[in-house]
Amino acid sequence: MRTIDDLDVKGRRVLVRADLNVPLDGETITDDGRIRASVPTIKALIERGAKVIVCAHLGRPKGEANPKYTLKPVAGRLGELLGQDVAFAADVVGQSAQGEANALHDGQVLLLENLRYEPGEESKDDATRLAFAEKLAGLAELYVGDGFGAVHRKHASVYDVPRLLPHAAGGLVVAEVEVLRKLTDDLERPYVVVLGGAKVSDKLGVIANLLSKVDRLLIGGGMAYTFLKAQGHEVGGSLLQEDQLDEVRGFLNEAVKRGVDLVLPVDVLAATHFAEDAEFEVVAADAIPADRQGLDIGPRTRELFAGKLADARTVFWNGPMGVFEFEAFSGGTRAVAEALVASDAFTVVGGGDSAAAVRQLGLPEDGFSHISTGGGASLEYLEGKTLPGLEALQ
User: Has 350 been annotated as catalytic?
Assistant: First the structure.
């Protein structure tokens, strides 16, 4: 992939596809991690005299304008981080966008309204997508792909626009790909992967692929209960995907065959119901009462997982160990994160809820080798899939 160093950007309009899909509480940004991650590439272009037009999505407005998903609050925060005003277009490729783009001077920045207000952005029809991509590309002379969290999507701004303009990968995408290559082509062992989150079905492909690569696979979060059920244990009212039991049994057998140490929780916090203030007790993972549900891994499991991480040389972590948003059920996720911070390994946090948990729990971001901005993109890369956005940049 070419990088921005390969582009002559001075005095030219550069369309930067960033990932600014941040959580909002009304108009308040509750986690600006993705905005901060986009700043170095935008700054580098500004310093070289580019006229920068940033495009991004937020949420799922489903092809129509919805004030709940406006990027206007993001423009304000991006301006604060850049130390200069960021102009904001009230549409994506309409009169406002065209007027603001034409008014840009060297070193200035414009943020377009939410890409997903336009049905062409996510369209499955190639012609519809291309028609929108042509309008978007018409705003600029060059394209920089820097939204790693979207590179696994075949969307107009990610896949079609770079085919219409001279293009390069931004610094964030380059850094993410370098890290993922370390996890696939150039890793030190023992290689330990920690997977959590709600659903096994979200991670079927990556588990199947990782079983031929890892030394240890630690399973926590809601997905662990489908594994426990597959072993014949009662899981009460815990999150369970009955339709995945056969698939999971296959994983358990494959791990034994390949000599992979597949580690499941040995105890859990079993709550009376799903709530922040729910009563709970610590129970063995194979003895969850029928009227309770597991909301976090227990203290013995936290010690077990920390021990399995202690001598690792490479670690990839994706997915919380419990309902970390509830203080009472955040201890398992914190224990895994702290074990990674204490480790001498090359440690990668695979974006999404894991990255959000690191910030919410107040852990030092520089305690990890890398915190990805794209959970889904990271998983699909490790699954061995071709990512449309990376393909378009190559």
Answer: no
385 labelled catalytic = no
167-213 pLDDT, tens digit per residue, is 999 999 999 999 999 888 878 999 999 999 888 888 888 999 999 99
Tokens 């390994």, residue located: 345
Smallest Cα–Cα separation from 265: which of 245, 289, 295?
295
Identify whether 376 is a catalytic site residue.
yes
DSSP for residue 15: E
Tokens of 53: 């037009």
Q: Does the pTM exceed 0.85?
A: yes
Contact partners, residue 269, CB within 8 Å, separation at least 6 = 280, 281, 282, 294, 295, 296, 297, 298, 322, 328, 329, 331, 332
Q: Would you tell me the crossing angle of helices 352-360 and 33-47 to the nearest 10 degrees?
A: 100
Q: Residue 171 has which token pair?
A: 């610094």
Amino acid 17: pLDDT? 98
Q: In which element (H, E) is residue 26 found?
A: none
Are the C-beta atoms of 353 and 320 separated by less than 8 Å? yes
* Torsion angles phi and psi, residue 95, rounded to 5: -60, -45
Catalytic position from the list 322, 375, 376, 389: 376
What is the number of residues in the chain? 394
3-state DSSP assignment of residue 207: helix
Residue in 43, 199, 213, 313 annotated catalytic: 199
At 95-112, the pLDDT tens digits run 999 999 999 999 999 999
For residue 34, indicate whether it is catalytic: yes
DSSP of 322-380: S-TTSGGG-HHHHHHHHHHHH--SEEEE-SHHHHHHHHHTT--GGGSSEE-S-HHHHHH
